[in-house]
Known about the structure:
130 residues, DHBP synthase, 6 strands, alpha+beta
Amino acid sequence: MKAYINSSIKQRESFRPFAPSVMVEHAEKYFGISDSPFMLRVGPVAGEMVPAVTHVDGTARFQTVARKDNLCYHDLLRSFCEITNIPMLLNTSFNGKCEPIVETPEHALCTMLETKLDAVVFPGLIVMRD
């Protein structure tokens, strides 16, 4: 997943790391730190279950997501965990190569079309490629 996103979506060097968003109730188990809602802390990644978010040095700069702070995102993480038994998702800035971070729906759609992104999700709407 890391190689695919770096080459096909971000179009950048393969060594660039990604960060996970993790349900706060699972952060201690995976990273040894219980709370980091603003992606300010780095922790060693326990085990080998999440290679897409593990940097070459075995660490990750992660974001914890609490239900009380972000209900929809926490519910997404919970649903993913129910399917995969992994309580986190890869998190990265939404932008293409040499582009600023996406700020508008129009820019999001342009970025999807300019990269190999499969879909863009808006509140109440999913836009997918053909």
